Amino acid sequence: xxxxxxxxxxxxxxxxxxxxxxLVLFTFGNASAADRNENVFAIKPSGxxxxxxxxxxxxxxxxxxxxxxGNLRPSSDTFTHMVMYKHFETVCGxxxxxxxxxxxxAQSLRDIPVYGTTHADHTTYDIPCAAPLKDERIHxxxxxxxxxxxxxxxxxxxxxxxxxxMILVGNHAPFTWGKTVDKAVYNSAVLEEVAKxxxxxxxxxxxxxxxKDSLIKKHYERKHGKNSYYGQ
Length: 232
What we know:
This protein is α+β, with helices and mostly antiparallel strands and 232 residues long. It has helices spanning 5-20, 78-87, 100-107, 117-120, 135-138, 142-156, 181-204, 213-224, and strands at 30-35, 40-43, 59-62, 67-69, 93-96, 129-130, 166-169, 174-178. It has eight helices and eight strands; from the N terminus they run αββββαβααβααββαα. β1 and β2 (40-43) form a beta hairpin. α2 (78-87) packs parallel to α6.
């Protein structure tokens, strides 16, 4: 028994959802679950195929990037997760994929506009795309710098990590987060679907208009506002 068994189990289940939802191929992507009382997170081991994963293989890392428990190397994206946990204080789960449509938008260096109510149900903002890293940061601690790339992009766009729980990293791929790792994976699936819808929208009508503000507000607030009425 380990005192980290719960977050290991959470991380394992979240990682197994990624291929099931069609969000990753082979060993692409990863998910992590944090325990903020212990200041640690459980993350997928690097390069291990999903079918070979188990809760016991999840690696425990502290918020300074030190391995606390585990016999395998953690994901190569571990330092990105670490930076995000240190700056996003209420977040307890992070997911990273290379899902097709979201990654295509990231490679195009474009925010995803709010074109419809599916997008507005989850956030009132365009999905931001962070600018690509400068060469000196790429040649430095790349994954660590990617974490700051995400943090700084939100600040530059005057967004908080609670305003929008997803981002595209320019020329790279999406990261999502939430108060639980299940929510982070959910956000990854939503982001991929919204990215696909936006791509098809522009293919049908290159001059498509953003959703009007009244509909954005209505759809977001009926699920998340103080007088929300969606669900039981």
